Amino acid sequence: MSEQTVLGPTLEIDGEIEGDEDLIIQGKVNGKIISLKSLTVDSTGNVEAAITTNNLNVSGKVTGNVEASDKVEILAAGKMTGDIKAPRVVIADGAKFKGHIEMGVD
Amino acid sequence: MANKPGLIGKAIRIKGELRGLEDLVIEGKVEGNIALRKHHLFIERTAVINANAQVDNITIKGELTGNTDAVDKVELTSTSKLVGDIKTPRLVVKSGARIRGSVDMVVPLPEGLLEEVTATASYAAETTPAETTPAESDPVGHESTDSSDEAWH
C-alpha cells in the first residue's frame, strides 16, 4: 500500500500543502497545494487553492486554477470553477465546471 | 473509516493554519498553527512540527517546536523532542524525552477529571498511612530520646 494522507472532513487548512504522496481532502483547504502524486477532493471536500499535481480527482468542490501533469477528472458529484491545464481531462455526466481548459493542442 | 483519525503522511509539508474537530496523526512536516479542540493530536516519530498547538490531548513521539496548550493531557514519549512551553493539567514525560521550555500545570481541570483526581487522591490518602506514620512518630521519637537523655543524666 502506498503512502496516503487523509485530511478529514472537519479539518480546515489555511496555507500551503506540499507533498510527495497521495492526498485525499475531505475537509477545507484555502491556499496552495503542490502534490507530486495524486490529489483527490472527496464529496465533503472544499478546496479554494491553486493546485499543481500529477493527477486530480474532484468529487467535491474546487475553486482555483489547476495544473496537472497527467490528468484532471471531475466526477459526477464534482463542482469546479477555475482553469485547467492538463494533457487529459475527463468530465463526467452531472459534473459542474466553469473555466478554461488548456490541453496543449497544437 | 469515519472513526479512523486523519493522517498527514511522511512526505507531506503544510505551512499555515490547521483547524479541525477530529483526531489527527501527523507523520510529516507542519509549520504554523494547529488547533484541534476537544481532540487528540498524535505527533509521530517522523514528524517535524514547528507550530503552536491548541488541543485536548497530545502525544508526542517526534519533534515539536512551539507552545502547547492542552486542555486534558500532554504525553511525551521516549523518542520525543519538545522546544516550547507547555500548559496542561496533566503531563507525562517518559525517560528519554528531551524538553526545553517551561511547564504550567496550574490550569483549570476539565470536567470529570477533578472527580477522578480527588478519587485517586483520597485513595492515595487511604493507602499512605504507612508513609505518614513514621513522619509523625519521628518527633515523638526525638522527644523520647531527649527524655531518655535526661534519664541518662
Characterization of the model:
The complex is a heterodimer of chains A (106) and B (153). Chain A is mostly beta strands. Chain A contains no helices and 13 strands. Chain A has strands at residues 4-7, 12-19, 22-25, 28-35, 38-41, 46-58, 61-63, 66-74, 79-81, 84-85, 88-91, 96-98, 101-102. Chain A is globular. The model of chain A has no long low-confidence stretch (mean pLDDT 93). Chain B has two helices and twelve strands. Chain B has helices at 113-127, 129-152; strands at residues 6-8, 12-20, 24-26, 29-43, 48-60, 63-65, 68-76, 81-83, 86-87, 90-93, 98-100, 103-104. Mean pLDDT of chain B is 81; it is low at 131-151. The interface between A and B is medium-sized, with 23 and 22 residues. Strand 2 (12-19) of chain A pairs antiparallel with strand 2 (12-20) of chain B, so a sheet runs across the interface.
Low-confidence stretches of chain A: none
State the end-to-end distance of chain B.
84 Å
What structural class do helix, strand and pairing data of chain A support?
mainly beta
CA-based gyration radius of chain A: 12 Å
Structural class of chain B: alpha/beta
Poorly predicted regions of chain B = 131-151
Largest sheet of chain A: 13 strands, parallel
How many strand segments of chain A? Answer: 13
Order of helices and strands of chain B: EEEEEEEEEEEEHH
Q: Average pLDDT of chain A, to the nearest integer?
A: 93
How large a portion of the residues of chain B is in β-strands, by DSSP E?
over 45%
Helix content of chain B: 25-40%
- How many β-strand runs of chain B? 12
Average residue-wise pLDDT of chain B: 81
Gyration radius of chain B, to the nearest Å? 23 Å
